[in-house]
Amino acid sequence: MNELLFVRLLKSADTNKDAKISKDEMTAWQDQLFTQIDANKDGFVTRGELLDFRTAKMEDFRKTHPKAEGDDKHPGPGPADDADDNEPRGPRDHDRADRHGPHRHGERHHDRRDARDMGPGGKMGGHGPMMGPRFFRMLDEDHDGKISKAEASAATDKLFTMLDTDKDGQITIDDMPDRPL
Predict the structure, then answer these.
(1) I need a surface site. Which of 5, 95, 97, 159 has the fewest CB within 10 A?
(2) Looking at residue 181, what is its pLDDT?
(3) Distance CA 71, CA 37 (A)
């Protein structure tokens, strides 16, 4: 996840394109993003504004990146069929069963994602976990149903601190974990 965040921040926050994200760049990016999302310019971001912003961004992306011919031949997982709930349905379920062993009382292992964070049909997509209710509640520290500029800044500061693992004041590739290919 950190690697994905780093790449996205490189594309959006690294204004001088030096492959380093400074605290100033991160703050400027957060300010600009907050201003874009705050549609009614009242100084707060509501869940509706956040979802509207995300929807508009996804529509823009789809317009500029149309599906290639044949992309719809391999849709994501469909609705559950009449198969036994204890049987793995695909490679991910099978791997999960191997890693976690048999499930108690014949229950299937459930993904930890909140169903409200899912898109239509229960699939990741739609607004995904980064736009879901949990994400919003995490940023809304005073639980007033909206995110203030101060709450957004605090969340950005926490994110910067989390990603700057070597504590040198900038997020670089050196802050990302070494993972085998």
Answers:
(1) 95
(2) 77
(3) 31
Choice between 18 and 88, residue whose per-residue pLDDT is larger: 18
* pLDDT tens digits, 64-105: 998 877 666 544 444 444 434 443 334 444 343 333 444 444
- How far is the C-alpha of 85 from the C-alpha of 49, rounded, in Å? 39
CA–CA dist 19, 7 (Å, integer): 9
The residue among 117, 145, 119 whose CA lies nearest residue 130 is 117
Express each pLDDT in 133-158 by its tens digit: 788 889 999 999 999 999 999 999 99
106, 87 contact by CB (below 8 A): no
pLDDT band at 130 (very low <50, low <70, confident <90, very high): low
The sign of the dihedral angle between the CA atoms of 162, 168, 171, 176 is negative
Is residue 123 left, alpha or beta, with left meaning phi > 0 and alpha meaning psi from -120 to 50? beta
> Which helix (H) or strand (E) covers residue 4, if one does?
helix 2-12
Cα 68 to chain centroid distance, Å, stands at: 24
Task: Indicate the SS3 state at residue 147.
Answer: strand
- Would you say 155 and 164 are in contact if contact means Cβ atoms under 8 Å apart? no
- By DSSP bridging, strand 44-46 and strand 146-148 are antiparallel
